[in-house]
Design goal:
Elements: H1 28-53, H2 63-66, E1 68-69, E2 75-76, H3 86-117, E3 118-120, E4 126-128, H4 147-151, H5 155-159, H6 187-192, H7 197-200, H8 203-258, E5 264-265, E6 271-272
Antiparallel strand pairs: 1-2, 3-4, 5-6
Length: 279
């Protein structure tokens, strides 16, 4: 019956609020681990001090001749690395050359793709493909009901664009504020007549022209940023291709020296070359 009675849950004491900046309150098990680690380190230091006190300054063994120490005094032991044979090194360098050749080919294709996106114009200017008048090949075909309608077809009125914006593919300002009722009923005469200065300098027309200039400036700024980004990317691709080609050439030179097919320079600065056999 004793186990059937509800008992009180004994919880460990928490860290007081005024001491929370010191972290979690240390329990007995935490103190035991800390004390055990402290005592082990103290015993180890005692043994080292005893060895240092009993050290023989005249002690010598031949292992001291081949052993090395690090800059901080630590002894450098043998890691078990074995020197590769001459043929194994040549094989590894062949694989490295194949990897460099593959990466150089990939960088070359990337550079060619970026160069196709940009055409160098006059001086330092850059013209993007597909955004010049001579590169534009698209056409817009309109179908009408009769020849009479074809003769009197006005693209500016039909699309609501200015004359300079009909042939472009972007930045095509709209015609805003022009009162088409002022045109003559006779279409032919209406086309020959010019709008009055009051209609041209109206407030709505001035606002439309100002907005068109702002849009054109913003669009030109965006195109300039895009061109600068493409130019920087192209320069980075060229630099990567150049570095890979230089690394490949240096690796080929090392392989040729290992096979004694070309000469070189000794550690004393003496140049030598392979003499071919006289035939």
């Amino acid at each position: 019956m004793r186990n059937a009675v509800q008992r009180r849950n004994h919880r460990e004491r928490a860290q007081p609020l005024e001491r929370q900046k010191w972290g979690v309150l240390e329990k007995h098990k935490d103190y035991s681990l800390r004390a055990k680690d402290y005592n082990e380190k103290k015993k180890r230091l005692k043994i080292l001090r005893q060895k240092a006190a009993e050290r023989n300054p005249d002690e010598f063994h031949f292992g001291m001749m081949s052993s090395r120490t690090h800059r901080g005094g630590q002894k450098l032991g043998d890691r078990g690395n074995k020197a590769l044979s001459h043929e194994a090194v040549k094989l590894l360098k062949t694989q490295d050359a194949g990897y460099l050749r593959t990466m150089a080919q990939k960088a070359r294709k990337e550079r060619e793709r970026l160069e196709q996106d940009l055409l160098l114009g006059e001086g330092k200017a850059v013209r993007v493909l597909g955004q010049s008048a001579e590169d534009t090949v698209g056409q817009h075909t309109m179908f009408v009901e009769s020849r009479e309608e074809q003769r009197h077809f006005d693209p500016e009125e039909r699309f609501g664009r200015a004359e300079k914006g009909l042939g472009g593919i972007y930045n095509r300002p709209r015609i805003v504020g022009i009162d088409h009722s002022t045109r003559n009923e006779d279409t032919d005469e209406g086309r020959d007549s010019k709008p009055t200065p009051a209609a041209i300098k109206s407030k709505r027309v001035l606002e439309a022209e100002l907005q068109a200039r702002k849009d054109e400036k913003a669009q030109r700024r965006l195109h300039q940023r895009a061109e600068d980004a493409r130019r920087h990317k192209l320069q980075a691709a060229k630099a990567r291709e150049r570095d890979l080609m230089a690394a490949e050439q240096e690796l080929d030179l090392q392989r040729a020296r290992m096979s004694n097919s070309i000469g070189g320079v000794t550690r004393h600065g003496v140049q030598w070359k392979v003499k071919e056999r006289k035939r």
